[in-house]
Structures are given as structure tokens and as C-alpha cells.
Amino acid sequence: MSTVESVSITAAVAVGEESTELPWYDRAMRWAQLTMVGDDPRPGSGFDPEFWIDYMRDIRADAACLSAGGYMAFYPSDVEGHYRSPHLGDSDPFGALVRGARELGLVVMARIDSHAVHGTIAAQHPEWLSRSADGEPQEHWSAPNVWLTCPFGPYATEFVPKINAEILERYDVDAIFANRWTGEGRCFCEGCRTQYREATGGAEIPPLPTKNGGYTAEEIRYRQWWERTLLGIARTWDEQIRAIRPEARFVPNSGGGALSPLDMSALAQQSDILFADKQARSGLSPAFTSGRHAKEFRAVMGQKPVGGIFSMGIEEAHRWKDSVQVAEEIRMWVASATANGVRAWFTKFAGTVHDSRWLDVVKDIYIWHADNEKYLRNTHSIADIGLVYSQQSARAFDGEESERTVQRPILGWYQMLIEARMPFDMVHDHLLDGESLAKYKVLILPNTVAMSDRQADQLREFVAGGGTLVATYRTSLLDEHGRERGDFALGDLFGVKAQGVRTDISNSYLRLKRSGDDDSAARVLRGITGTDVVINSANRVDVTMRDGAGEENSRVVPVALIDSYPDLPMEDVYRRDTDESTPQLVLSQFGAGRVAYFANDIDRAFSDFLVQDHFELMRGVIDWARDAAELVSVRGAGVIEVVAWEQSASMTVHLVNMTNPRYLKGPIVELLPSPEQFVSIAVPEGRGVERVRLLRAGVEADALIVDGRVELTIDSVLDFEVIAVDFD
After folding, report:
1. Are strands 63-70 and 107-113 parallel, antiparallel or unpaired?
2. Cα gap 424→441, rounded to integer Å
3. What burial letters (b/e) apply to 617-639, b meaning 16+ CB within 10 Å?
4. E strands present in 305-422
5. Predicted confidence (pLDDT) per residue in 167-194, tens digit
6. Non-local CB neighbours of 611 within 8 Å, separated by 6+ positions
7. SS3 601
8. Is the pTM of this model over 0.90?
């Protein structure tokens, strides 16, 4: 019998008081970055430090990142070899900005850039330069008479620490933020060669790999050394900074994601705060890209603070750094990032404002964030679905093949989950231990090709504990170093043996098998009606079924193969394969745990071709995998990204309206209101509901509590809405 009660909405919701007892990196929620350029200190340039301080005050920013030095100094540095802005003279624009920000009570980070030096400095310090395999200094690809630095040599170990120390000793800053600190390309200077020989017992730095496939042992060894050495330098800088000012930190800039060269789990382990430096859409990036980057960082940082850097500019390959995007695109980028738990950080290149159209947009965003800060201080995501991203798998291929083989399957699942309105987290493949996976009912492995024996055992433990794995294509066919296994490491869970890999297949289909005593097949296939044949993907593993699963285990094959046949001449376009017994999807039950294995790359196919039948198959498998009521249900037309969080005394559900013709390729130039949305939210056990508000609309919601769920209807969502449920 249903119980219904109304929700009291009479009391006002107060914004959270400033938590001054928190460390600076946790206190800061709204960042403002000004990246100065060499012309800014020139009299008459238009740069006005007071303008920026006033703007930070007006938008209610509570933290600032300001250009200090490294490649170019914006303060009167006394460090030998520290190139100053040519117009600096006796001025100190960095110092003026720091003083103004501190008067406002802002957290302040000093930005340095360590990837290059001016030609005059290069001539004085050739030992600082990165060198090619033939020993020649490497010139910057963009700026004339600028040279790349070695990330491991005396520039990093001697010069940068002096810069950091000078800034900390002269100015009241909380941290040093380093841009491009990992270097650019592979360095073959004598210092790197010597360090590498000493670390490896005499080996030489290998040349850059030139073809796809598993890397050689030499290449694997080099990459491990490169990463280990860089992370060591970051730790050393942090230790040196803390020795001067114990509360200060070194903050390494980073991109994140499966294709990131640095192990994000290792970087996160030694960092108290990180920033997702993915500033805007480019190419074919969908509107949810900023949210994906946020999820990738959240996967490794847990509840440590993460900032989401966004630029006002158009971020394409031609790098129009003084450009300004349309307001609607900026709003949607920040909305998805905020929904996924990162803190806003705008970045402005150059201190002169050539195009002011962005100023009011950012002001509006930041004031809303400040007014609702209480509901943006999340304690944990309530999602019970985890989507794995595997840097380990990406490293088994070169850049282009990594994108095709590893990234696109991730994007396929990501888009399906967004469009299916299923809250989910991303999970790093180095964090598959029981504690990290305890909250998840479903774990998705999108062609997670490279896997160690230990990781395979961790996933077996997940299934044994009642979890469900969903895996595709070549998952676990390589070891952690990208070497072929010959069979799946998880073959016992998948229920099949690998017999070889086939790629670029044309005109293949899937037979949908709805019969059988088990309702699993019907549940998976219920989204596809009117046919028992749909298209296959273009790549698959040829598999055969393993022996029976045992008394407590069972297997169902709801999708089988119709093999390819000629597509020309038209008279020859008919099926030759009448067997239809080769599995393409195997559903297995292991006690309380479950496993679904696709022998094809249906996820990559959905990302590439957006076939609705593939969407329905993927969604059907997740419905079967969860086998439970949805924690958050949002029903209605349109594309709505749904993300749900708990805070200390509340929970929030973010609805980001991506119903837009520019959803899959920006920029969004017009916001189109969604039709009404019907929302049902499970109230955490032991919690009572005091009130429900719509934070974007700024109104109390007409909500009911029905059998422990908050039920409400939202008439429309323009760009985003946040449902805030206050607990009593």
C-alpha cells in the first residue's frame, strides 16, 4: 500500500557559510585565472590590474590563479636566467594582482610555465634544452626563437625550484600551479641519456614507436621510467614548497582521461587538488564532454577537490586564443561540468579585454554558484553504475589506434548512459579493489583490452560479491603490458573461448533469440520490437562456448551471429550463414553475480554510427544487469543528462538539458526548453525530507513523498535544473 505525504516547503534554504577551517584547496569553489602576456605590462596596452580585482569581487570568485613566471616573469625576479616580460621595467603586475586578491580574501595560486625558454636564455643555458635523437635543440613549434626545455634536467631540478622559492618568499600565495610541466615530446639530451642508462643498467632511450600494436619491452621500460621520473619531480617540487610554507602545495596541470600519458591514479594519489584542463569543445566533441572529463578526474580523486577549467575561446586546432564563444555554449559546458562535481575555473588569456561578451556570462554563472554553494559541496555520488576507463589499454596502441580502440568504446557507453538517463560514475582501471568498487552494482568494461592477472582476480571478486560485469570485444585479451594472451583472462566469466579477432567486417547481422525459459533474453531485447535481425558491428572476436557453468551458474545466448556475406553485385546479396549458433552476447549467472559479454564492439559501433538498435541492446543489458529499481528516474522527451549527489544535509539531482541540434557538435547557439520531466528520487534509508527546491528556477517544488521516493514534475528545463532535497 502506498503512503503519500506532502513536503514542507515553508522554510527558506540558507546558503552554506564559508568554511574557513578547511584547507585552502578545499575551501576554494570558484576560480578566476588570468594568464598574462608579455605585452600586458606595456604602458598603454589596456591592461588594468584594478579592473580584474573588481571583476573577481563582482562575480564572487573565491580563488585566483595568476601568471608569475617560468617562461616569462611578470614580477621583478632576481633569479639568474629568469626571462622578464620585455615591458616589465620597474612594475610588478603579478604583485599588484596578488595584493588585490588577498584584500578580497581570495585563495591565490601563482602560475608558472616550464616547457620553454626564450632564445636569449637558451643561448646562456644550452644544458636546459630538450634535444632530438640527433642531439639538436628542439625549437618551439609555434613561437620563433623559443626553445623547448628538458623536463628532467637542471632546468627542472635547479632553476624551477629557485623560481618557486622566490615567489613563495616574496608573495602571499597558497600554491604554485605549473603549466606544461611534463615537457613536450621525447628528450634525448645527454642528461636524459645518462639518467636512463643509470636507471636501466645501460639501456639507451628508444626511438619513438612508429606503428600500432603492443609496445616492445624497451618502449614499455622507457614509459615507466618517464612516468616514474616525472612523478618524482612533482613530489620533489611539492616537498620543497612545503618546506618554505607548510600549507602551500605544488599543483600540476593535467588533462586526464584514458589517453592521458601520465597514470592519473598515481598523480591523484600524491595531489591534494587537481584541475581538469579541458577548456571547451572541439571537432566532434559532444555537449557532455566537460562532464566526462569531470567524471574521469572524480574517478581518481574521490572527494578531493577538482576544478574544471573552461575557456571563453574557441578551442580548435588553429587556437584562436583571443576569441570568445557564444554565451549558450559556455553555459552548457559549465553546467555539465558542475553537475559532475567539479568546481568552476574560468581562464582568460591576456590581461586586455578585446571582446567583452563573456564577462556577464561568467558573472551570472559564478553568482548562481555562490548562492547555491551549499548544494555543490558534494560528499559522494549515489550512482551504482561504474564505467571503466583504461589508461593501461590505451598505452597498448599508438595515439590514433588508442582513440579508435579504447576511447570510442568508452564514448559509446557514455552517450548511451546519458541518453538513457542513468546516473553513473567513471572508474579508473587501477582502482578495481573491493573498497573502490563496493558501491557499484554494475561495472562496464568497454573493450578494456589490457588487464593484469591481479585485475582479473579483482573483477572475479566483484562478481562473487554479487556485482555484474558488462564487457565487450577484446576485453582482457592482452596482459597489462599490451602483450597477446591467446585467450581471455576473464574467459571463465565470459563463458567463451577466443578463437581469433576479425576486423573491418561488412554486412554482418545479429540474430535476436527471444525464446527460452529464462526471462533474461526477453528483458535484454524488450527495447527492440518488430524484428529479430539487426545490424552487427564491424569488429568481433570469434568465440566458442566453454563447457557448462556448473549447478549454481547458468548461461543464456540472446544474440547470435549472422556472418557477413557479399554486398555486391546486388544479385549476390543473400545470406550464406545458416548456423546462427555463434554467440555475440552471452549472459551468465554466477550465484548472486552476473556477467554480460558482447563478442563484438557494439559500443564503438554506437559511437560511430548511432544505430538505435545498438542503443536498445546496450540499455537492455544494463537494465538486466542492475535488476533493481532505479535510484533516480527521469521520464520525458529529450536528451537530459542526469547526475545525483549527496551532501552533508541534502541531496541533489542535476538535470542538464542537451536537447539541441548542436548536441553532438558545437557550439550550441540557442537554448531550447525541454518538455515536462517526471522525476522520482529514492530517499536514502534513514533520512527524512524537510523540503524540495528547484535551484535554477529559485522556487520551492511541488513534491510528494511516495513509498520513500520524492516525486515531482518539472514543467521545463532550459539549460539546467538542480533538484535539492533537504533532509530534516
Report:
1. parallel
2. 11
3. bbbbbbbbbbeeebbbbbebebb
4. 306-311, 343-349, 380-381, 385-389
5. 999 999 999 999 999 999 999 999 999 9
6. 534, 535, 605
7. coil
8. yes
